[in-house]
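Researcher: For the record, we're logging two predictions in this thread. I'll number them. Prediction 1 follows.
Model: Prediction 1, sequence and structure:
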Amino acid sequence: MKKMIIAVLAVTVFAGSAFAADVIELKKGVSFKHKAHVEALKDCKKCHAKAEGGKIEGFGKESAHKMCKECHADMKKGPTACKGCHSK
C-alpha cells in the first residue's frame, strides 16, 4: 500500500510538471518561467494552495512581490531587485 501511495504521488508530480506552462506573461513586463520554477521547486504547494496547482487565490502585485522575493531570498537564487523581474 505504501508503494502505491508513493507511486501515485510521483505520477502526480510528474504530470503537473509535464503540463505546466513554459512561460506566463504577467503585468508590467514580467515573464514568469513557470516550468522552470516547477522543476526547481518540485512542490506546487510552495506557491499554490493545492498540490495539483491551479489559480493562486488573491495573487496580485503585493502577494507576488512578497511571495516571490521571499522565496528568492530564502533560496539565494533568483532576482530580488525590480529590474530582475521587470525587464521590459
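Researcher: Logged. Prediction 2.
Model: Prediction 2, sequence and structure:
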Amino acid sequence: MSGRKDLDYYFYPESLAVIGASTNTYKAGYQIVKNMLDYGFTGKVYPVNPKEKEVLGLSCYQTLNDIPGNLDLIIIAVPSSHVLGVMKEAAARGGIKAAVVVAAGFAETKVPELVELEKEIVATARQAGIRVFGPNCVGIQNTRNFLDTTIEPPVVKTQGDISIITQSGAMGGTTLLFMEEQPAPLGFSKWAHVGNMSDVDVLEILEYYGEDQDTRVVGMYMEGIRDGQRFREIASKVTKEKPVIILKVGRSEIGSRAAASHTGALAGSDKIYDAAFAKCGVTRVDYLEELVDVAKGFSMQPLPQGNRVCILTEAGGPGIVAVDQLGFAKHAELAHISEEGRKKLEACLPSMAMICHPDGYIDITAAAMSEHHADALNVVLDEPGVDAVLLITVPPTFLPPVELAQSLLPALKAANKPVFVCFLAGKWCDEANAFLEANGIPTFKMPSQAVRVLDEMMERKKYLDKIARQEGGAPNA
C-alpha cells in the first residue's frame, strides 16, 4: 500500500505483534491472538511473551527485537505498570507505526502521576513515529482483512458499509451485537474504540472514515470531544458525502459528569452539541437501538426525494400507529394519491379495502393476499405524489409470510424510492424478515421505528439540498 496514511497501519497492517500474548484463556493476550486466528487475519501475527514458547500454535518471541522483518502494529496487552517499558522497547526497535494500548489506569483516573505516565508513554511513541490508540482501549476491527484486535464478545462479522466509532468498548461491542441481531445480520466495514484518546481521537477516525471507500455510513457513540471547531470542520466535510449518526450521551448534568469520569472526555453543554450537530448535518439519535435502525435505513435504501409517505397496511391498528407517528415527525407527512392511482387501487384490491381515508393511507384489509400486496405496492410506487412507502402487514394463517415476502421482492428491488417493511407477528414472521433483509430490504419490528428512520432520512435530504444551493449546484439526489 503506497502512500499510506497513519491510520492505514491500524486498519490494514501487514504484520502485528501482541505483547502479553498468553496461553491463559482468561488473559486479554490470549483472546486477542485467538481472535486473529479464528477470524483469519490476512497479515502476520507475532505473539510476544518471554515466559511462553508457543501461543495457540504460533511461535512466541521473547522480545520485539526478536521478530524478523517489518512490524506495522503492536497491541500492548500488559498491565499498566509495564506499558511504558514496552513502548520504549518499541521505540528502540524502530519501524513500528502504530500501537493499541489495552490497559486502563491512566489519565481517566485523574490521579496526577498516572496522568503524567500516559503523557510519557505518548511522548515516547511520538519521538519514534508511533501513533497510539488508547490507553484504556480495545482497538479496531476491519472486515475487509479479517482484523480484530479486541476482546469484545464474538459477533458474526458480516461485511457491510457501516463503520463505527466509539468512546466505549462496551457500547461499541453492543452496537455490533444489535447489528448481528437484526433479521439478517447487518454488515459493517470498520470499528474503532479510541479509549482515552491520548493521541488518535474520534475526529481523526471520522475524517478517515469520510475518505474510506468501504464506508458509506458512519455511526458513533460519543461522550465528548475536546476541539469543537475541529469537529465542525471535519463533520461538515464528511456529511456532504456520507451520513454521520451520533449517539451523544451526557445530556443531563449527572450524565455529563459520568461521561467525563469514564474516558476523561469533555462532555460540555448538550445544547452546544445539538446546535453543532444541526449545523454540520449530523443525525443525532437518542438510543443505541435507534442508531442501528437509522444506520440500516441509510445503508439499505436511497434517500427520499421529498417528505410524502404512503402508508400501505394490511391491518388497521398498526397502520394507525404509523399515521400517529407521522403526526409527531419533523418532516414526514402523508402522501397524495392521484385520482388515477385511486382507481387503480380500487381495481386491484378487495372490495372492502379503505383507500385514502385519509389521503395517502391505504388499508388493504386482512382479506388481501400476496398479489394484492404486490399490486398495491406497484401502484403507489408509481405515484408522483409518493416519496416513500411504509408497507405494514400482519400475515394471517392462510398467508405464509415467506410466500408473501417472495411475492413482494420484485417490486421492492425495482423501487427507486425508499420502502420500509413491517411484518408483524413475532416468530411467525422471522423467516420472512430475514429473507427481505438478506435481499437488502430493511424491516422494522414496529411502524413507529420505520417512521422515525424515514424522518431522519428526510432531514438529511433537506440538509444536502441546502448545501447544494449554497454551493450553487443542483439539489442532491
